[in-house]
Amino acid sequence: MVRIPLRSRRVTNPEGRMSVLDHLRELRRRLIVMFLIIGAGAILGWVLYDHIIDILKEPYCSIDYHHRLGALNQSKDQCKLLFRAPLDGFVLRLKVSFIGGAVLTAPLWLYQIWGFVTPGLRRNERRWTVAFVISSTLLFAAGMALAYVTLSKSLQVLVGSAGSGVQAALDVTQYISFVILMLVIFGASFELPLLIVMLNIVRVLPYKLLKRGQRLGIFAIFVFAAMATPSTDPFTMLGMALPMCLLFEGSVLWAFLWDRRRDRKKAAAKADELPDDVASEIDPLPERIEAASESSQWTDLP
Question: Is residue 227 in some structural domain?
Fold first, then answer.
């Protein structure tokens, strides 16, 4: 009796099917890893706090000199924010460190999210892992950069709307919360084309459906921009809505090209297959087998 080694008995799972409990364990493991990654990033953000706060403070410092001074008795070259409660400074440092760490380590914890989603995808769809991580990071960074550029304009409009008889003495906790909210909302909104592309790849959102809802999608983008921007000024709303519309149109174009490529592959594969009612072409007369040479003749086995 021949014994089969234990390794050959092991059943593989190429489709990545898991039970509900296995999914929950995997989700718990991924979340723990994500929290550890963000925690390590928060430590780095704590170390780089002074540099981060200078970057976040710059939009306020770009406001006109006559609108941002007064209560602090600062000179024209100074730009400082104030806090009133004793714990505000410590809480501010924790908040900035945590969010800065999450942004700095975004590629690592985004990879954990994709690693949790991957087992539910087909094998040819799993190759998009690196592209997902890189594109999501770049899109989020582009959204934050655009928000940072528009912040100075929106603050100038908001602070200047109070008139020339008042001056701004912003509380640092409220100001930093406002700036961070703007950066996060802009960065998250720029993930829209990536979401559309990934849903199109897994055949959930085909181009035909996107084409029918294209006008409704653009209208929904403007409504979202009007509701999501915390400054509520038209400049910031247009600064978010117009790039989102361009990204949306680009993702629709990508879905059109991808679906056309997929249809061509299906048509080519279907052309190679014969229908069931068509007989295959078989040569009824086999080719003549030439006699082997004397040196390669078959010999009788004993």
Answer: yes
What are the tokens at 73?
């008795």
Residues making up the chain, counted from first to last = 302
Question: 94 and 238: one domain?
Answer: no
Predicted confidence pLDDT, tens digits, the chain (302 residues): 445 444 444 444 555 566 778 778 888 888 899 899 999 999 998 998 888 888 888 888 877 776 665 545 555 667 777 777 788 888 888 888 998 888 888 888 888 887 777 665 566 556 677 777 788 888 888 988 888 888 877 777 777 676 666 666 677 888 888 888 888 888 888 888 888 888 888 788 888 888 888 889 899 999 988 888 776 777 788 888 899 999 999 999 988 998 888 888 887 777 666 565 655 565 555 555 555 454 445 455 44
Per the CB < 8 A criterion, the answer to whether 191 and 142 are in contact is no
Verify that 143 and 260 share a domain, yes or no: no
Tell me the residue range of the domain where 211 lies: 191-269
Mark whether 155 and 199 lie in a shared domain: no
Residue closest to 194 by CA, chosen among 154, 247, 147: 247
Q: Assess if residue 203 is contained within a domain.
A: yes
Q: What angle (nearest 5°) sits at the alpha carbon of residue 167, between those of residues 89 and 68?
A: 55
Domain-embedded: residue 293: no
Say how far apart CA 158 and CA 148 lie, in whole Å: 15
| Domain identity same for 59 and 207 | no
CA distances from 125 to 72, 120, 121, 203 (A): 58, 10, 6, 11
**Cβ atoms of residues 229 and 185 within 8 Å:** yes
Question: To which H or E segment does residue 89 belong?
Answer: helix 88-104
Quote the number of domains for the chain: 2
Residues 219 and 86 both lie in one domain: no
| 236 and 100 within one domain | no
